[in-house]
Amino acid sequence: IELRSKQMRTSDGIPNNSVRYMYQDSKGFLWLATLNGLSRYDGNSFLTFRPESGEKVSLADNRIYDLTEDKNGFLWISTTPELFSCYDLQRACFVDYTGTGALEQNYSAVFIAANGDVWLRHSANGCRRIVHQEDRKMVSTELRRNVVICRITGYNLLMKMPVGEFGLERNVDWYLYLTVSIKWKIVCFILLLLWHLKIICIF
Description:
Blueprint: E1 19-24, E2 30-34, E3 37-41, E4 46-49, E5 64-69, E6 74-79, E7 84-88, E8 93-95, E9 109-112, E10 118-122, E11 126-132, E12 138-143, E13 147-152, E14 174-179, H1 182-196
């Protein structure tokens, strides 16, 4: 077996020699997260994306931190100032994932649920649940006040309490969100643990 390699630099089309992350999407393109833009490699040349001025949705920041693709063919791009961008791989364009133009809200992490929903979270700003529509548009719900996201796999759980909100997805890897105080979070997790150990039943 003969192996060949080639080192690529800015002279070859990469926007910056500091490549922080690499990701291959479902179409086979290789994406490079750099400190000076997002670059897509098709095997021959690089196409670089950077923030653009104007009303058109574009890359939030040129300092890319992380990349991941969801189940519907959208690339989620995390940047250094905790701003996310979303790129539609089918239509080859950046999109407004909030549905309201609220793209300047800070989020630090992304979670892809088993049913295809996307959750963005931040320790101080709560989280945002993004739901895909049939026309490849998105609608989102912003959740505030001490939000915690939990994942439950293979169980059937229904809990009703006088405070907070539970969101459940059926027949998938389930997740729930709590917008409650620290005290109620502790109570809920103790109840979940006891229920998981089959010590109590929750209806």
